[in-house]
Structure formats: C-alpha cells, structure tokens
Design goal:
- It contains 18 helices and 13 strands.
- Helix content is about 50%, strand content about 20%.
- It is elongated, with a radius of gyration of 25 Å.
- Helix 3 packs across helix 8 and helix 8 runs antiparallel to helix 10.
- The strands form 3 sheets. Strands 6-3-8-1-2-7 form a 6-stranded antiparallel β-sheet. A 5-stranded parallel β-sheet has the order 11-10-9-12-13, sandwiched between helices. It has a two-stranded antiparallel ribbon with strand order 4-5.
- It is of the alpha/beta class.
- It binds flavin-adenine dinucleotide (FAD).
C-alpha cells in the first residue's frame, strides 16, 4: 500500500519539479536586482519567467498525453494521469496567458503603441509566431472545456496541441532573451521540447507503427438489443494480458463497418439536430471499452452501447473483421482495493468492468454485493449469468434495481441489505448518478478514499 502510494505520488512530484526547473535556472541567470528597478523591466522579467515555466508545463503535458506505459504507471493509472493532464494543461495555459499579458504590459508601460504593436505582425515573425500559438492554444482549450465534443473530435483537438507546441517552441528558441544568454536553460528547454515532440510523434504521427498493439479477429457479434452489442475477438498472434476491470483501446477494419462512416452526417435526437463533420479516417479511431472477459480467456469480450457514430457502426460489424487492440489500461479492479468487503454499483452499461470482475471470482476471500441499476428488467442482459455466479461463488450477491420498480440506487436502499461500514464502494455509471451517489455515500459516512469510480469519458467532468 505504502509502495503504491509512493508510486502514485512519483508522477505529480516529478511534474512539479520538472516544471519549476526553468524558473530556477532563470533566477540564477537574472537575479532580482537585475529587473526590480523599472516597472517595464519588472513586468517583462516576471512575464518571461511565467513563459518559461508555462512552456515547460506545456511540454510535459504533451508527454503526459502520449499515454506512455511507464508514465501512466507513475501516476497510478490512466484515469489519474488524464486528471493531472487536464489540471496541468490549464495551469500551462494560465502561465502562458500571464506571460503574454505581462510582456505586453511591460512594453506598454514604456509606450502604449509599442505594447499594441506586439499584438500585430509588425512585431516581427518570431513574436507573431508566439501570438499565433497562444491564440490557437486558447481556441483548443476553449473547445475542450466548453464544446460538447465527440470522442473523435476530442482526440483531434488533443492532437492539435502537438502542432501548437511546435509553433510555440519556434517562438521560444528564436526569441533572444534570458534563455539565449543562459546555456543550461537553453539546453534544459531544448531537451524537454525534443522529448515532447518525440512523444507527440510516437503517439499521433507514427502511432500505427510504433505503439505496441495486438491483432485480433472478430469471432462473434451478438446484438443484445437495438442499442447494445456484445463483441468477441480471438487473438491472431499473441494475446493481451489483463486484470479484471481493465479497459482497452480498439479499432476495427471491415468494409461493412467502415462504410458506416461519412464525411458529413446529420444526427437527430428529440428536438435537436447535430451536423457532424468527420475530420479523419475511421481507421485511426481508437475508442476505449472495458473488457468483460476474464484474464484467463485468450478471447476478448466487449459490451458496447450505441451513443455516437463509432458505437452505432459497431452494430454492422461482421465476424471475420480485423481488430487492433491497445492496452490494457486502468487500475479500477476489486483486486486493487483495501477491503475485501466491497459494494459494486453499476448504472446500465456501467456493468461492463464488473462483468469481468464477477466472472473472475473464485469464491475465496471476497464479500461482494453488486447493485445493478437498469431502466427495466429487459435491459438486465447478464442477470441470469450473474445469478449463476451468485449460486456458484460464496460471498457474491446480486441485487437488481430496475428503476421502474424500485427507483434509483441510494445508500438507504443499499443499507437495507448491506452494511456500509468498512467497505470499498466501486461505482460505474452515468456521470450524474456517479456524482449523486458519491455525495450521498459521503453523507452516509463512507470515507471519500473508500469510494472509487470509473468514468466512461476522458473529457472534463460535466
Ligand atoms: C475507461 C472507459 C471505459 C469505457 N467502457 C465502455 C464500455 O464498456 N461500454 C461502452 O458502451 N462504452 C464504454 N466507454 C465509452 C465509450 O468509449 C464511448 O461511448 C465511445 O467511445 C463513444 O464513441 P462514439 O463515436 O460512438 O460517440 P461520440 O460521437 O464520441 O459521442 C459520445 C457521447 O457524446 C454525445 N455527443 C457527442 N457530440 C455531441 C453534440 N454535439 N451534442 C450533443 N451530444 C453530443 C453523444 O450523444 C454521446 O453520448 C468507456 C469509456 C472509457 C473512457
């Protein structure tokens, strides 16, 4: 447990230290006395320091986004890594915003016209490159935070940060300033920038060649209803090794599947209509799905609910289609919890990681109560199988909670059949359900550290 804690802390700690190094090198080069006199020198000095730290944080964010195996381990899993990535990305942006504002203010304090000139091409190509990178970064950050992006568009916006970083690096290395007069600072930022560009190239430009992936073939596609499909894949060569509860990234290759994708499509849902523009090739789209199969089974199984273009197209997937799989990722597993007594709560399709965990139980040690909330009994596709596991495996109980009969899952409902003392609670479901349950469980006395959840999206929490 202690080693695990250190391992999780290693990533954020390294991030903090590596981001601050440029500020230390810069302070060594430009002592306080060098820039504290004039207002314009002070503003420019602080602005420069913010820019250097912001660029280091930006470079590190590109590295975090590359989903490198050792890096995600140092953060305690991909979900934690992405959380840090989001926070660090915002911080990098704020630092760079501070840089732009203070440099302009420093110049404007001498002459307002000069300050404004910095925001136009008249400032020279190098400065203007920096401004373009900043504006593009602003647009990309705003899109991630405020637009409702499809998974595919989200991935493309993330990739755009690599290009923006390359442009910003040109600005940093071509601008004369503290960096160019401090050799250690130039070397440090140079190495960090190269590492970031290499990580970007590894993931986004040459991912098909460089990222370790597994080849599978679809052996069965079973429609559970109009919206949910179960896919089974057999390994073509070596098979992926996973732990119960982990997820993979996968894409498929078949004419029937790929013919479902169009450059422009119109989606209607109730009164609203959305026009979807496809920026790239469906072959490059890797989507995350929890494994429902057990680690001992060389075949991989997924259960997918249709919510958008990719997941709808999976209903047309045919047996024999090729699949490429990357992973496994994730720490969300009953095996990683402190308590052997656990309460699992699934909302609808959120049952998938629990299927893998339940199928892996061998009756030893664990006491697990699974609460599965579904709209109605017709949607509890795996209830028979889970009841079979309940009969076979001591210590596992299933509580089906159809909303039309029993309402939502709440701590009060759980307390009727399970104790909430000394348990780990694992939740997977729609974000509003996860948020409400987390709050109610804390109010009912479950410590926050004992409540664990997996989100089915990597974007900002909504
Ligand atoms: C760790 C993890 C595990 C997962 N495991 C599973 C699993 O086991 N089973 C499963 O079914 N899913 C799972 N998911 C979710 C799955 O990855 C996504 O549902 C899938 O990638 C969506 O792709 P898509 O192209 O079909 O939908 P997208 O087009 O990406 O749409 C995603 C959602 O956003 C909405 N949306 C998108 N754009 C708009 C817009 N402009 N206006 C309004 N709404 C919009 C869509 O309606 C939809 O609800 C998992 C996700 C993660 C992160």
């Amino acid at each position: 447990m202690r080693a695990d804690y250190f391992l999780r802390a290693a990533g954020p700690l390294a991030l903090l230290v590596l981001s601050l190094v440029p500020a230390l090198l810069w302070a060594q080069q430009s002592p306080w006395s060098a820039w504290r006199g004039e207002v314009s020198a002070t503003l420019s000095g602080i602005g420069l320091a913010l820019g250097l730290v912001g660029m280091a944080a930006f470079a590190l964010n590109i590295i975090l986004g590359a989903r490198l195996y050792t890096v995600q381990k140092a953060f305690g899993g991909l979900e934690r890594l992405y959380r840090t990535h989001r926070a660090n990305g915002r911080l990098a942006y704020l630092l760079i915003l501070g840089h732009v504002c203070l440099i302009v203010a420093g110049r404007a304090s001498l002459s307002p016209q000069d300050g404004l000139r910095l925001l136009s091409p008249a400032a020279g190509a190098v400065v203007f490159l920096g401004l373009i990178a900043f504006l593009a970064m602003t647009a990309a950050i705003a899109a991630t935070l405020y637009a409702r992006l499809t998974h595919e568009a989200f991935v493309y916006v993330q990739r755009s940060f690599g290009v923006i970083f390359a442009v910003a690096s040109l600005h940093v290395f071509l601008t004369a300033g503290a960096k160019s007069s401090s050799r250690p600072l130039t070397i440090y930022l140079g190495m960090l920038s190269l590492a970031a560009l290499a990580a970007f190239a590894y993931r986004s430009l040459f991912g098909n060649l460089l990222v370790r992936r597994y080849d599978y073939q679809v052996s069965e596609v079973r429609e559970l209803d109009r919206n949910v499909v179960e896919i089974t894949m057999a390994p073509l060569t070596r098979h992926l090794e996973s732990r119960p509860g982990q997820f993979i990234f996968v894409t498929f290759y078949s004419d029937a599947f790929l013919s479902q994708f169009h450059p422009v499509s119109v989606r209607t849902s109730g009164a609203s209509t959305t026009i979807v523009l496809r920026p790239g090739d469906a072959r490059d789209q890797f989507h995350p799905f929890s494994l429902t199969s057990t680690p001992s089974d060389p075949d991989l199984k997924l259960v997918v609910k249709a919510v958008g273009e990719f997941t709808h197209a999976l209903h047309k997937l045919d047996t024999g289609a090729r699949a490429r799989v990357e992973g496994p990722y994730g720490q969300f597993s009953h095996l990683n919890m402190r308590h052997r007594r656990q309460i699992w709560i699934a909302g609808g399709i959120g049952i998938t990681p629990f299927l893998s965990m339940a199928r892996s139980l061998d009756g030893t040690d664990y006491e697990i109560d699974l609460y599965w909330g579904v709209n109605d009994r017709a949607q509890a596709y795996f209830a028979d199988e889970l009841e079979g596991i309940e009969r076979r495996v001591g210590g596992f109980r299933l509580f089906l909670v159809p909303e039309d009969e029993r309402g939502f899952i709440t701590p009060q409902l759980i307390s009727q059949t399970s104790s909430l003392q000394d348990v780990d609670v694992l939740i997977v479901g729609p974000p509003p359900m996860e948020r409400a349950l987390r709050r109610q469980l804390e109010e009912a006395g479950v410590p926050p550290a004992s409540i664990h959840s997996e989100r089915f999206a990597f974007g900002p929490r909504r």
